[in-house]
Structures are given as C-alpha cells and as structure tokens.
C-alpha cells in the first residue's frame, strides 16, 4: 500500500514526477505507427508515414522517424508506451477533454486537479511553496486545488510571469487563468483559488531565483519552447529546492491542417528535449529519482482529412526514466474498420485513471482512490 511519499527505496531521495502535456491532441497513430498494416496506409493517404521511413521496434509497430531519440531511449529500456489510453464516451472538445484528464471527473465538472490533490498529500503542512512548480503561462487545472500552493513560472531567467517583476505581467497571467477556467467552474471558485494561493506563488519566486545561478551543464538544449521548459525543470531539480511535481506543456498538436510538416517538427522538438533532459540529469547523477509522464487529451481519427487529422480517441501516453521498465503496455487499439468507434475512431483500451493510480501509488507512494475517483487497473512499469 502506498505510504506518505517521503522516500524512494531507502536511498534517501524523494521521488519526483515531471509531467509534460502535449496540448492539442497528439496523433498517436503517427507517433507509434502500425507500419506493416495496410489499413493504416489506406486511411492516411496524405499524412501516412512511408513504411521505409518508420523506425521499427517490432514486426508491427514503429516510432515516427523524427522521434529517433525517444526510440533510442525505448531500446535502452527507459520508455514505457501506454497504448490506447482514454475513457468511455471520449470528449472531442479540447477544453472538456483536458478538463477530464486534469480533474479525473469524466461525468461532471471537477473543482480540483488530480495533481493538486496529490501535492496536498505530499506536503500536507504546506512546508514548501515549491513542492509543485509549473513552467508556462497561467496554471494548469491539474495542479489547482484550494489551499495548495503552486509556483508558476513563465521563464526562469526572467523571474516568471505569475511572479514577475512587473505587476502588469502578473495580472496578465492571472487574467489568462480566469479566462480559461471561469467558463467551466464559475468566476467565484476561480477568484477564491487565486486569493488563497497568490501570496504563496509570490513567495516561491524568491526561492526559484537561486536555481539558474547554481546550474552548469555540458548539454546544449535546442532553441524551442519545450526544450527551454525542460531545461528549467532540470535547473530547479538540480538546485535541490524540494520540488516533487513539475509540470509543463508542449503546444501545437491540433493538426487539422498542415500535419506535415507540423507534426514531424513537434516530434523532433519533444523527443530531442526529453533526451537532452535525461542526459542532463545523468551527467549530474540526479536522474534515478525522476519519472516523466507525457500525455495528451485525445488521439486523432483514423482517416486523414486531406491535410491533417481531426479529433479522435484511443491515444497514447509515455512513462520515461531510469526507474521505468520500458516496453509496450496495455493494448494497441484495433485499426480494423469493423472495430472503429463511431465508424472513424480507434477505441480506447486502457483507462487513464489507471495510469495515474500507477504513478501515484507505485512512484509517489500515496494512495490513489480518492485522487482518481476509484480503483483502476495499474501497470507494472517500475523496475
């Protein structure tokens, strides 16, 4: 049974979770490709990846050609691919689907994020305002829970947007937060949340200023948003400020049009940034207590639309890191036309709340049922 999340396997290090959100609905079918299946090529006349370009991992599945770093980490046993992840009656709305992933409430509007609840268990006395840190504008719903402090940083070198030097930047970020969540949960709860956590966020910024000064590395991260964010995660992790949960996002996955070249670029950015991040931690002997969760709000439809792909279901997620037993988990959705959901989607084969429960119980060592809203099948992904 899960405990208090205080230590990992007796080595004295606390387990750390890094969450990367692929915002927009990543095309899982073009990320882990059924490269020998003719139905795939019949369905994807425009965006299909030629068999000779795909990077095979077995006789049926292959990584996207621009995800070579991810495949290399997979071959070293550091990447678990969770196939067919989703939930019943999958929403095709970006806002609602992400809300469901963030709150574990598929049937109603949730008022707390799953990671916010987790942080409350990890640090019940609110001893550290940096127990959770988000890199990006605003604050992800997953981390929001009344009374739970979370520091949100736009740019570590420039002191962050939520906490920035100029008051107008801070107000801009707060306005973004209100615009994102007021339509779903009402302006009252949003304002209550902001008033409770605003001062904690400001306190966190003063401590975060230490991280860049302490950091040096031989790794040269690329010049793109996800690489910069993961470099910031590395800098704060290596500064040993007690952060247990990091969150960031990589946007641009809503590829209704121009999926080529947009999706290959995203695969290049994401897989390269992840590789650099873990190499950075390895050079500093600081990766054995870090696990990364990479997820998206839904998959895309089986057939392309002549330029891209529309919202679908049956997506995929990844768990990455030294503590992970790499491989394929759950079941790749059937791509037989007779099995398609609504005649156009892959069906999900594994409930996302089981993945969360796996991370919470087996990694962070905290009980999951009240966080994810029940008991779900877990995966044996940790070494």
SS content category: alpha/beta
Helix content: 25-40%
Number of structurally distinct domains: 1
Kindly identify the CATH topology.
Alkaline Phosphatase, subunit A
- Identify the CATH architecture: 3-Layer(aba) Sandwich
What is the total tally of β strands? 12
Largest sheet: 9 strands, mixed
Shape from CA axes? Answer: globular
Cα-based radius of gyration, to the nearest Å:
20 Å
Task: Give the percentage of residues in beta strands.
Answer: 5-15%
Instruction: Give the overall average pLDDT.
Output: 89
Kindly describe this structure:
The protein has 383 residues and is of the alpha/beta class. The chain has one domain (16-372): Alkaline Phosphatase, subunit A (3-Layer(aba) Sandwich). It is built from eleven helices and twelve strands. It has helices spanning 38-43, 68-75, 94-103, 114-122, 167-185, 187-208, 210-214, 225-238, 259-283, 352-363, 369-372, and strands at residues 16-23, 32-33, 55-56, 62-63, 79-86, 132-135, 151-153, 245-251, 290-296, 315-320, 327-329, 350-351. Strands 1, 5, 6, 7, 8, 9, 10, 11 and 12 form a nine-stranded mixed β-sheet that branches.
Which terms would index this structure?
383 residues; alpha/beta; Alkaline Phosphatase, subunit A; 9-stranded mixed sheet; 3-stranded antiparallel sheet; 12 strands; 35% helix; globular
Please describe the topology of this protein.
Layout: E1 16-23, E2 32-33, H1 38-43, E3 55-56, E4 62-63, H2 68-75, E5 79-86, H3 94-103, H4 114-122, E6 132-135, E7 151-153, H5 167-185, H6 187-208, H7 210-214, H8 225-238, E8 245-251, H9 259-283, E9 290-296, E10 315-320, E11 327-329, E12 350-351, H10 352-363, H11 369-372
Parallel strand pairs: 1-8, 1-9, 5-11, 5-12, 6-7, 6-8
Antiparallel strand pairs: 2-4, 3-4, 5-10, 9-10
Helix pairs in contact: 2-9, 5-6, 8-9
């Amino acid at each position: 049974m899960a405990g208090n999340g205080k230590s990992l396997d007796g080595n004295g290090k606390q387990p750390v979770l890094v969450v990367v959100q692929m915002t927009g609905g990543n095309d899982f079918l073009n990320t882990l490709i059924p490269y020998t299946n003719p139905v795939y090529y019949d369905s994807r006349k425009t965006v299909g990846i030629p068999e000779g370009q795909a990077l095979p991992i077995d006789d049926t599945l292959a990584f996207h050609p621009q995800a070579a770093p991810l495949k290399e980490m997979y071959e070293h046993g550091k990447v678990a691919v969770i196939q067919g992840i989703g939930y019943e009656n999958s929403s095709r709305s970006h806002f609602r689907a992400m809300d469901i992933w963030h709150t574990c409430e598929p049937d109603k509007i949730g008022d707390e994020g799953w990671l916010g609840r987790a942080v409350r268990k990890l640090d019940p006395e609110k001893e550290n305002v940096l127990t959770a840190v988000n890199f990006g504008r605003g604050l992800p719903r997953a981390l929001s829970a009344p009374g739970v402090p979370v520091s949100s940083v736009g740019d570590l070198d420039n002191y962050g947007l939520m906490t920035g030097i100029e008051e107008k930047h801070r107000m801009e970020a707060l306005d973004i937060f209100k615009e994102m969540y007021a339509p779903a949960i009402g302006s009252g709860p949003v304002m209550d949340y902001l008033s409770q956590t605003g001062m904690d966020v400001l306190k966190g910024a003063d401590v975060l200023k230490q991280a860049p000064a302490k950091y040096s590395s031989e790794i040269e991260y690329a010049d793109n948003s996800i690489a910069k964010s993961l470099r910031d995660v590395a800098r704060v992790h290596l500064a040993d400020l007690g952060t247990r949960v990091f969150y960031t996002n990589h946007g641009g996955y809503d590829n209704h049009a121009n999926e080529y070249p947009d999706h290959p670029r995203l695969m290049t950015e994401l897989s390269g940034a992840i590789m650099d991040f873990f190499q950075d931690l390895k050079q500093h002997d600081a990766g054995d207590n870090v696990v990364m969760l990479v997820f998206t709000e839904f998959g895309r439809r089986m057939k392309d639309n002549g330029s891209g792909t529309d919202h679908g279901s049956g997506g995929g997620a990844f768990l990455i890191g030294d503590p992970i037993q790499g491989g394929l988990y759950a079941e790749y959705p059937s791509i037989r036309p007779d099995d398609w959901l609504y005649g156009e989607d892959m069906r999900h084969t594994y409930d996302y709340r089981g993945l969360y429960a796996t991370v919470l119980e087996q990694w962070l060592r905290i009980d999951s049922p009240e966080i994810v809203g029940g008991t779900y099948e877990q995966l044996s992904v940790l070494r």
